[in-house]
Amino acid sequence: GNAVVIKPSEVTPRWVDPIRAIIKDVPVLDGVLALVRGPGETGAALIDRVDLITFTGSVRTGRKVAEAAARRFIPAYLELGGKDPAVVLASANLDAATSGILRASVAASGQACQSLERVYVARPVYDKFVDMIVAKAKAVALDADDPDNGFVGPFIFDRQADIAADQIKDALAKGAKVLSGGEIVHKGGKWLAPTVLVDVNHKMKVMTEETFGPVIPIMPFETVDDAVALANDTTYGLSASVYAGSAEEAIPVAKRLNGGAVSINDGSLTSMIQDVAHESFGYSGMGPTRFGAEGVLRYVRRKALLTNTQGPMGIDGKTVPLK
Asked: Rounded to the nearest 5 degrees, what angle is found at the Cα of 210, between the Cα atoms of 140 and 256?
């Protein structure tokens, strides 16, 4: 089979240690699976020595990876950023919608590419939706305060906390309001409680740029066409969610959203369902699906051996029998 080299991000290097220990106990894997750590320069050096690259990370770095791979004419499969929207129709079960959207927005402290980062709610149920999600957001504990039961962990590094803080500051300066959270907390690391923003619009960074933090900006819409236009107003196209009173009502909306996978009546199902093939659109990625059987086959070079058992065709169109 194919030999594999795995290089983790330089800001999360230690997760490979238990995997390395397991691999060493399996000789057949130890010979074909290597784990290396290092800064970005290490990854750049790897590109010059392999036949295929799979990269998960930022759009900026993904572009560099794609350019380096193109110079060598090797495939580059990119899993990049997202600005995933949720659309909540007036018929939606608001208790279920607020619970699902809260989880999909703040799980892993919002530091997952498929996190929900924008919420569009039908005007008739907007106020009730906001009240419900704010109450639930305020009940979520930080694991810095409650290690056994806390749900929200710290930012992975200072730079990510700074991005979230800058987006919140920008939104407030342009008229948004914070209804929960909103302040970076220093407790041996940097935490941010689930932050609900209202009175937001697409002139704010928090509605157009990837946040990668537990921030939930909520905007009302008047018509489904408006909701679709707002949801698709992005350079990304990773995934999305639609909440409605029935799947039959949600599916036509889901088909119009520019995302490789759309969850219906739940959020970020892409992190739970691994066997359905789908792709990333726009700046969210490049290359074939990483899910399902096709996700394995993309690492296989396909070759055909073509045998004629009857005899070749001559220039006159007649078959020349094999002797």
From this structure: 95
Q: What amino acid positions are annotated as catalytic residues?
A: 79, 113
Q: Are strands 4-6 and 33-35 parallel, antiparallel or unpaired?
A: parallel
CA angle 293, 291, 115 (to 5 degrees): 170
Question: Between 289 and 95, where is the model more confident?
Answer: 95
Query: Tokens in use for 176?
Result: 């948004």
pLDDT tens, 166-217? Answer: 999 999 999 999 999 999 999 989 999 999 999 999 999 999 999 999 999 9
DSSP letters for 256-288 = HS-SSEEEESSS-GGGT--SS----EETTEESS
Q: What is the pLDDT of residues 252-282, one digit of tens each?
A: 999 999 999 999 999 989 888 888 889 999 9
The closest alpha carbon to 95, from 307, 294, 265, belongs to 265
Beta bridge partners of 190: 186
Cα gap 129→148, rounded to integer Å: 29
pLDDT of amino acid 160: 96
Q: Find the DSSP H helices in 155-286.
A: 158-173, 205-208, 224-231, 247-256
Q: Which domains does the chain have, with CATH numbers?
A: 4-80+280-297 (3.40.605.10), 84-271 (3.40.309.10)
pTM above 0.90, yes or no: yes
